[in-house]
Structure formats: C-alpha cells, structure tokens
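// run 5 | inverse folding | seed 20
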C-alpha cells in the first residue's frame, strides 16, 4: 500500500470529512495502503452534481446511453460485505442509466509484483485500484490510460481535492482519479491503556510520549506489545519513512536533473534510533516483530498491541467491525512530533482508480463515467445513508475516510456530514487530532523499491542490538542510487 512534500494536510483538513498498506505490501495495505478501500466514495470539492451521477435529465439527452461496452471494475474483497453492498447498489443504478453497458466484477486488487503480468496477458480489469506512489511507475510503463480529455470534459474537475488528485497529474496529463486520502496516523487502543492505568497522551504528542506510552502498556511476558511497527514487506519501510519525515529528512533530492538518495542523513539516523529504542530499550514491540500490514492490524484488533501505524480507516474498520471494539475505545492520533511544538508529519496517501490503456475509447469513457458516477450525487447520499442504517441494524460501524474527495466546508460536504451526524454508528475522528495532521507525499521515483530496501535496514535494527545505523543507511542509499536513481533524468 502506495505509494504521496509539496503541501501539508492542514490544507487537506478542510477537505477531511472528519477518513487509505502503505505502502508496500499491505498498507497504504497502501501499502499497506489500506487495501480496505471502498469504491463508493472519493475525493472532490464542490456543490454541483455530476451528470453521470444524477437522473435529473432524461437519459435520451445523453448520446452515450446508446453506446455498448463491457467493462470490468475493481470490486471490494469478500470480507468487505458492507462495501460490496454499496458497490452492488452503484452497479444497479449505473446500469439503469446506461443499459447498454455491462459491468463485470474483478476480484483482482493491485499488487506491484502482479500488474506487469496482468498487463502483458491482457488480464487487467478496465478499472483497477492503486496507490498514490504508483503514478510514475504505471505511466512510464504505459499501464495507465491518459484520460486527460475525459477529465477536461468532466464538469466537476475543478472541485476535486487538488492535493490528492495532483498525485496522478503528471506533466499536465491525467492518469487516474482519486477516491480518498489519508495522512498516516497512529491508532491507539484506549481500553488497553486504561486497563494498565497508563495516561492517554495529548494528541500533540512527541516521540518520547510514544516510547513511554508503549513501554508502560507493554507486557512482554504475556505477549502484549505497546506498539507494532511493521517489520516485513514493503510496509516496514513505509512505516519507518513517517519518522524520517518527522525528523526533517527526505527520501531523495533532485538537483540539476539528477535524483540522489537523501534518506541516509542525520534525520534518517535519528529515525532509526527511535526504532532502536522501541525495540531494545523499551522492549515495547512484538517479540515476533516480522509483521506485515495485515499482521500488525490483526494484532491491534486482537488486543495484542496497543498501537499501530497506518492510514486510520483500515485499522478502524477491522477493530470495530471484526474485532468487536467500541468507538470510544479506539483513538486516532497524528504521528508524534520529534519534540514539543514540532510537526506531526505523516505520509500523505491516497486510493486511486486507473483505467486500462488497452481498453477501447468507448470502454474508457464508460469506465470514467463509472468512476465518477456517484461523485457529488444525491443518489450516493441516499445509498450511504441506507448502508449506515443497515450497519446499525447489524451492530456494525461506518468508517468515513479521513479525507474525502469533497471539501468538508462545501455544500456537498455539509450534506454528507449532516447524514453522519444523525447516526451514532458513524466513527467520529477527533477534530483536535485531525487539526494536527501534516502530510508529505512520497517520492515518485522507485518508491516501492526504496521501501523494500529500507525494510532490510529495519529488520537488521530489530534483529541485532547495536548495529551501525549510519553504515546501514549508507549501504541502502548506495544500493538505491546504483540500481535506480542514477538512471533517472528529471525533465
């Protein structure tokens, strides 16, 4: 999960509705990047209703209704029962408006090591999901359709959240549409802290607060960790990069058209020292620390760790709807600042939908209309309220994105929030926490390769006490430079 230093999420917070495995292998499953994405919502800003998502005008006024095509779409995984219901309702409404378009459900979800095979064998769906980091990777290989013309003809394009959407606008051309976004956060099991008599830290917390809290709540003899930083898959490098940013570091530098590894800096050493303290001084991470996104979030859901680092939506969904936890027991914190008064930087991530470049022009337009079908539509408002009601009847919770595709203060955003406010089974992000979020996009060059390289370093720090941190970083930087960065020319 993929895969997002230009502007802060404070600008985005005005865009947050109150929410995406990292990156690497389960995050952002965005890595991690939170592969727990839904496709019913995305990020936009504005008040107008997209003509593709409303039935105010007779269908006959739109010549596209006469076009025939079959498209395959990104469809939620089987465990996302409620999200599948939302998508099924969208499919029903879309095909009512466009009866000549056939929708096929694809069970393939984006994986960096599979997309090439899917494209070569022409098995990639018409619409597939991806992460913010994947833009250049997909574009350079010709695996994302240039949808600039479709975008320019889309009446709500100027109302899309630019901080998120710009990740897929390269050299003025558009290659994907944002669904939603997030700034990597720390999700905290308040109940575990309360049971151990550990004080809840301020949302404006620091690295020392994180270390002390994790150490105080950990009980190694019982297999209870204070925090579970991810330790395998690309998500381990993704998790660590949040601390690199907080320490003032960057992944790369670009100067004179050259890309140079920059993470082997004093900031990088400082971020590794934090991991060293959590592992060896505080003894606060799991004994079996080789956890990917799913493992770490699973440990959190099962009460085996009090904190997990991820885009908040995924852990919240699992904790509340699969782990039986209550909203009041789960807190979403910004990433901690290095010291009091510092920035709470987290990786700015997002979930995107990309159109297969091998699709015909008619298929691409049908796909674009499907992606944006519910944006700014009253139909989606009705659909999501119905979903919230159905979840309530089943004692389940609705987890909004940290950042939606619309501005919180827009007319449409206010309509959405009014629905959320009506129900006590809609998770509420603490405004004082969201106000501190400050995001940085990931580097757009070989990001997943970098995450994999840093995962090796993280594993060495967790495996052996007293490793030479600077030497390990220098080695990793040289590997990235020789294999990838030296071959890049920035235009």
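// decoded
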């Amino acid at each position: 999960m993929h895969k997002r230093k230009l502007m802060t999420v404070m600008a985005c917070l005005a865009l947050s509705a109150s929410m995406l495995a990292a990156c690497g292998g389960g995050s952002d499953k965005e890595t991690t990047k939170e592969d727990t994405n839904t496709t019913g919502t995305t990020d936009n800003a504005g008040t107008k209703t997209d003509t593709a998502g409303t039935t105010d005008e007779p269908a006959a006024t739109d010549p596209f209704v006469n076009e025939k095509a079959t498209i395959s779409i990104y469809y939620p995984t089987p465990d996302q029962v409620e999200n599948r219901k939302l998508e099924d309702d969208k499919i029903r409404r879309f095909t009512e408006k466009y009866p000549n378009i056939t929708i096929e459900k694809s069970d393939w979800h984006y994986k960096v090591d599979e997309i090439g095979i899917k494209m070569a064998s022409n098995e990639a769906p018409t619409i597939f999901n991806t992460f913010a980091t994947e833009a250049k990777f997909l574009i350079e290989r010709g695996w994302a359709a240039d949808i600039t013309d479709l975008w320019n003809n889309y009446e709500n394009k100027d109302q899309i959240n630019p901080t998120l959407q710009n990740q897929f606008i390269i050299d003025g051309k558009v290659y994907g549409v944002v669904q939603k976004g997030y700034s990597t956060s720390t999700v905290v099991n308040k109940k575990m802290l309360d049971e151990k008599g550990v004080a809840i830290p301020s949302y404006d917390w620091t690295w020392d607060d994180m270390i002390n809290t994790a150490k105080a709540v950990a009980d190694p003899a019982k297999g209870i960790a204070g925090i579970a930083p991810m330790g395998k898959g690309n998500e381990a490098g993704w998790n660590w990069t949040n601390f690199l940013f907080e320490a003032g570091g960057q992944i790369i530098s670009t100067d004179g058209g050259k890309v140079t590894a920059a993470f082997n800096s004093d900031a990088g050493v400082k971020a590794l020292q934090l991991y060293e303290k959590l592992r060896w001084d505080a003894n606060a991470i799991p004994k079996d620390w080789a956890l990917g996104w799913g493992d770490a979030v699973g440990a959190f859901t099962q009460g085996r760790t009090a904190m997990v680092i991820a885009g908040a939506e995924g852990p919240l969904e699992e904790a509340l709807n699969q782990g039986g936890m209550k909203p009041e027991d789960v807190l979403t914190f910004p990433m901690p600042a290095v010291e009091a008064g510092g920035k709470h930087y987290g990786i700015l991530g997002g979930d995107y939908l990309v159109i297969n470049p091998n699709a015909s022009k008619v298929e691409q337009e049908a796909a674009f209309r499907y992606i944006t079908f519910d944006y700014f539509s009253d139909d989606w408002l009705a659909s999501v309220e119905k979903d919230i009601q159905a979840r309530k009847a089943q004692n389940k919770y609705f987890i909004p994105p940290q950042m939606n595709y619309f501005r919180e203060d827009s007319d449409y955003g206010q309509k959405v929030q009014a629905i959320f406010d009506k129900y006590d089974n809609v998770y509420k992000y603490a405004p004082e926490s969201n106000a501190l979020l400050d995001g940085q996009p990931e580097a757009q060059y070989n990001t997943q390769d970098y995450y994999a390289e840093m995962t090796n370093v993280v594993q060495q720090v967790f495996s052996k006490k007293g490793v030479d941190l600077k030497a390990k970083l220098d080695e990793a930087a040289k590997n990235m430079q020789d294999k990838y960065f030296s071959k890049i020319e920035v235009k």
